Structures are given as structure tokens and as C-alpha cells.
Amino acid sequence: MFGYIIVNQSEMKYKEFAVYHSYYCGLCQVLKRKYGLAGRISLSYDMTFLLMLLTGLYDPPTETGSCKCAAHPFEKHETRTNLFTEYMADMNVLFTWYKCLDDWEDERKLHKLLYGQVLEGKTRKTAEQYQEKFRRISMLMHDITEGERSGKADIDTMAGLFGQVMAQIVVCREDEWADNLSRFGFYLGKFIYIMDAYEDVEEDIRKGTYNPLKEKYQEPGFEEDCRMILTMMLSECCKEFEQLPILENVEILRNILYSGVWGRYEMIHEKRRRAGEKSEMDRKA
User: How sure is the predictor about 85, in pLDDT bands with cuts at 50, 70 and 90?
Assistant: First the structure.
């Protein structure tokens, strides 16, 4: 479900991308240190974005360093880490563990069961540390699972549940910014859930698996409606973002929110458009 909150590298300065990549590498290193290779596999661009968001808002002391890794064995890469790197690593692994269990229950994916079992042993202390937050996330994920099992077609309700999950992840402190961050996470989570459904709808129809957009896909104006809904979610998300007193790396964050997040959508939309044109040509031939 993750992988949509990415940069638009073509519209980013080289130095800005280097900074972004240093947070990504820093998160990767912390995941490796705390959770081993299993944790490292769960690394996502989405969590890197949230890490930079919280860093920009709270301005914690940040350490710079360098590292080599299996992906880049011949050259060192700069890393940036702070207390929010630790927090996002914990949230990333906890969510991935729960998602593995969910995927096993829903689709009996053996590799997800095995991966989840590996993560379970590594996350017990983390789950205890964030006991109340993890309890809320677990309840929300359970509601999502129940909605999917019952075939609930209300995309707003289903996306709203995942929005609440993201709100729990983004709000790391109960302070003056908690309400803004909660609303920000809520709309960002709704965007992610709807984008995931939009991308998978054709495959889910073929497989007969759940997707809340199945009925809408058969209706005229499906593409326009999806674009409008996604735009509304991001508009609300950006409204909350602009109220946060973020100065550090704000242009990188804006690149992601105003441009990068649409990259995957445009790719999916263009692929679907071309497939539709080919089908129409084949029909006429």
C-alpha cells in the first residue's frame, strides 16, 4: 500500500535530492541496526517523507554520517539521522508486521506469513513501547479487514479508516501541532488508500479480490471522478501542511506533495489510456 509518496526528481535540484537521499539512507541504516535485514526490507519512501516532515517541524539535533550498503557497495552515501529516524523506523516495522498478518489472513500469501513471523520476534519490545498507539492502529486495521471481507464498496469510509491509521503514525507528540498533523496524516492516508485501489482495480476485477472501486470502474467518468477525489484529498493535506512552521527542507517536501505524489498516478493513467486505445483498435480491426 506504500510507495506513492515520492519525489519528482526531474524538478529537484541536485543538492536537494542529495539531502532527501541522506534521510532515506539514514532510515535504512537505523532499520538495519534495530531490526536487521528483515527491517531493512520494509524501508519505504513514504516513511522517509514523514521523517523529513517531523524533522522540519521539530528541528531536532541531526547527525550526519556516511555508509556503504549492499545496494551501493562501491561508494559511500551521506546519512542523516535523529530521534525521528528511530520513531519512523519503529512505525514502519510495526505497520509492515501487521500488514503481513493481514495479507496472510486475506490471501494466504505464505511469504507474507513467514516475513511477518520474522518481524514479530523483532517488534515485541517496540509494540510494548508504543502500546496505546499500536492498539489503536491494530483496531483500525481490523476494521479495514472486516470492511474488505464484507465487500464494503464505500471508498470514503474505507479510505477514512486508513487515514486514521496514518494520523496515528504522523502524530508523534501530543502538543500544539498534534491536531494539524492528525488532519494532515488523515488526508494523506486517504490519498494513499484511494491511489492503491485506483492502481489495482483492473487486477482485482480479474482475480475477484476486494477493491472498493470495482463498481465505479464500470461507470462513465471513472477516471475523472478518481482524479477529482485524489485532488481533494491532497488539497486538504497541503492546507494542513502549509499551516506548519516548517522552514528546513520545505522545498523538498513541497516537491513531493505538489508534484511527486502525482508521478505514479500519471503513469497508471497513461498506461490505462494506451491499453484502452489498443482495445478499441483491436475491436475495430
Answer: very high
Locus of grid cell 527491517: 39
Rounded Cα gap, residues 65 and 63, in angstroms: 7
For 58-84, the pLDDT digits (tens) are: 999 999 998 876 666 667 889 999 999
Residue 30, C-beta contacts closer than 8 angstroms, at least 6 positions apart = 81, 85, 86, 89
Task: With CA atoms as reference, report the closest residue to 24 among 69, 73, 74, 75.
Answer: 69
Asked if residue 4 lies in contact with residue 62, where contact means CB atoms within 8 angstroms, the answer is no
Which amino acid, residue 104? Answer: W
Q: Is residue 104 part of a domain?
A: no
Q: Which three cell numbers stand for residue 176?
A: 500544539
> Residue 52 has which C-alpha cell?
523529513
Q: How many domains does the chain have?
A: 1
Element spanning 67, H or E: strand 63-67
Adjacent-strand bridge partners of 168 = none
* Cα–Cα nearest to 42, from 70, 1, 80: 1
C-alpha cell at 207: 482475480
Residue 77: strand, helix, or coil: strand
Q: Does 143 fall in a domain?
A: yes
In a domain, 220, yes or no: yes
pLDDT of residue 80: 96
Are 24 and 78 in contact, with CB atoms under 8 Å apart? no
Q: Domain range spanning residue 231? A: 130-246
Q: Note whether residue 160 is domain-resident.
A: yes
pLDDT digits (tens, 9 = 90+) for 193-239: 999 999 999 999 998 889 999 999 989 899 999 999 999 999 999 99
Torsion of CA 130, 261, 154, 104, to 10 degrees: -50
Radius of gyration (C-alpha) of the chain in whole angstroms:
19
